[in-house]
Predict the structure of Dyp-type peroxidase.
Amino acid sequence: MPSSKPSSIRSAGALPQPVLSQPAPVAVFLVVTMEPGGEPAVRDLLAGLAGLVRAVGFPSPDGGLCCVAGVGSAAWDRLFEGPRPRRLHPFEELEGPRHRAVATPGDLLFHIRAARTDLCFALSAEIMKRLRGAVTVQDEVQAFAYFDSRNLLGFVDGTENPVGRAAAEAAVVGDEDPTFRAGSYAIVQKYVHDVDAWEALAVEAQEKVIGRSKLTNIELDVPGSHIDVNTVTGPDGEELEILRGAMPFGRPGHGEFGTYFIAYARTPGIPESMLRNMFLGGPESGPDPILDYSQAVTGTLFFCPSATFLEAIPEEDDPD
Ligand code: HEM
């Protein structure tokens, strides 16, 4: 079986996939499972993905087209020989007193971002053309930036995301797993909102749920709010960070209003502890009140290997 054997030599100067790229106006989240025998087509696609993005994106230099590919825990062993990313495991389902974080199938994630819908569409189409018959699509969501970076609950989303070097520190694997340096873990969850119930709340009550003012986006001191529950600290009291890329999606004609949540992290343990606080409740607070208006309908964990790793996947007819 042709395979990619990760080596620490290859990972020494490894470059990440574009996990750190700026929030974009349009995104597509594509989650698929691999059919038996689909592995060679998937390996070929992953090896050629950067070239495909260049081909689709180059004629539109202002389009900012980029794509991050992730591989799920079970799929990893079907695709690659040798060591595994140390912390790759299936998404842990959480059953809280009132809310459930479901785990749903997903072998591959494609997180496509661009300034324009047509570029995201064209790249998704090229990816699917190469994977047809090799995969089954589990979820395909077209998401969009909404007004001034707001979600469909009307609040600005992404403010406290780390930037620059702090973003790389939060999202990109370093020396703790030398073979997989420059990779990233990605947790995705698709949330659908009960907008009628949300809009029935007074703005002040909504602000208490989120922990920020709605119009001016100023942080409020509200114990138990969404931002309070998601402020997690390490052993030395330092704040532990993730890089979020959540985007709104929806179909008003079907009554669908949602947030597609994605977090990139250097270790899945950090978003997992946030999820435990949200769904099970933390030491000082109950479950996250945002969940009374938001239901998680998917949940999957992926490892997004470095761009260098993907480029080094041998062609199927390559004798090495
Ligand atoms: C229904 C889905 C969600 C919605 C609508 C949502 C919305 C928001 C909003 C409006 C903020 C405040 C502004 C900001 O800093 O971005 C925020 C902050 C945050 N959210 Fe969420 N969020 C969702 C799910 C999650 C999940 C699943 C996690 C973690 C796994 C998470 C982690 C965080 C973190 C870490 C912050 C920043 C906290 C701080 O330091 O101030 N969120 N979210």
About this structure: The CA atoms of residues 149 and 156 lie 5 Å apart.
